[in-house]
């Protein structure tokens, strides 16, 4: 099982001809209201990738709460750990350009009220996974990691948005997932600088972590136990990159939960993240298991092509 401890939002998405610069206003033809939030997105990604999932988070007592949870309940995710609180449901304001690149502003709202104590209602098995992100309070992330470590769970953190983690938290983690910009911020906070790949390798060696770095169109790499695992991206026509990172995280957690090896799990996650770029929106773009498996099989064949038979 995967326990996701994290944020739940409504995404207000506007498509624009060009992303605005500082002080600039740009116009778009309209907007969409789409369920999102890094915690909710990763929970749905893990569920669609084949895992049993429970989500612990918070929503407001407002009109955004029901649509924010609409796809999660229908997918069979355990939502008993989602608390209604006296704060507005979190909102992300997202601008997306024709190339699928985005700018995002997140208003935390109810996500600031998420508490690690809510995890106590769960009864996980050893080696289940706790998956976290950085859109809920830092003190609660640390408390959740301690809760998980005391129960022999795998502890996985997506350090996004970018920033450092404390040495205390790093010592509790098994896996950290970052993009090529976030890994530099993570490294700087722990006294490691350099190019993204070198920083990932050093962080892995110093802290005994698996450090996975997503590289957009270049795929992903992961350093663990001195070994560099890598996977290319699965080729798609990019429409919207909003959910790519969250889909990668959820799919990686699901693959590891199914006891796949790290190399295969990174490939599976890279395939899932790529497929999420081919459709608009956050949760609406997250692929199902069959599509991920098909794309991952193609990536695996590229890595280990079958021997060609020759006719005598």
Description:
The protein has 312 residues and is α/β, with parallel strands linked by helices. 49% of the residues are buried. The protein is globular. Helix 7 runs antiparallel to helix 8 and helix 8 (262-276) packs across helix 9 (289-303). It has a nine-stranded mixed beta sheet, sandwiched between helices. Strands 3-2-6-7 form a four-stranded mixed beta sheet. It has a single domain (2-303), classed as 3-Layer(aba) Sandwich (UDP-N-acetylmuramoyl-L-alanine:D-glutamate ligase), CATH 3.40.1190.20. It has helices at 38-48, 65-74, 138-150, 167-170, 182-189, 196-207, 244-257, 262-276, 289-303; strands spanning 2-5, 9-15, 31-36, 53-60, 78-85, 90-96, 102-107, 129-132, 154-158, 175-179, 210-214, 220-224, 227-231. The protein is 33% helix and 24% strand. It contains nine helices and 13 strands. The termini are far apart.
Helix content: 25-40%
| Total domains | 1
Q: In CATH, what is the homologous superfamily? A: Ribokinase
Order of helices and strands: EEEHEHEEEEHEHEHHEEEHHH
Average pLDDT metric: 94
| Largest sheet features | 9 strands, mixed
Structural class: alpha/beta
First-residue to last-residue Cα separation: 52 Å
The unreliable regions are 308-312
User: What CATH architecture label applies?
Assistant: 3-Layer(aba) Sandwich
Radius of gyration equals 19 Å
How many strands in all?
Answer: 13
CATH class: Alpha Beta
Q: Strand fraction band?
A: 15-25%
Number of helices: 9
Strand order of the largest sheet: 5-4-1-8-9-10-11-12-13
How would you classify the quaternary structure?
A: single chain
Binding site for K(+): 240, 242, 276, 279, 281, 285
Pfam family, one: PfkB
Function: Catalyzes the phosphorylation of ribose at O-5 in a reaction requiring ATP and magnesium. The resulting D-ribose-5-phosphate can then be used either for sythesis of nucleotides, histidine, and tryptophan, or as a component of the pentose phosphate pathway.
Pathway: Carbohydrate metabolism; D-ribose degradation; D-ribose 5-phosphate from beta-D-ribopyranose: step 2/2
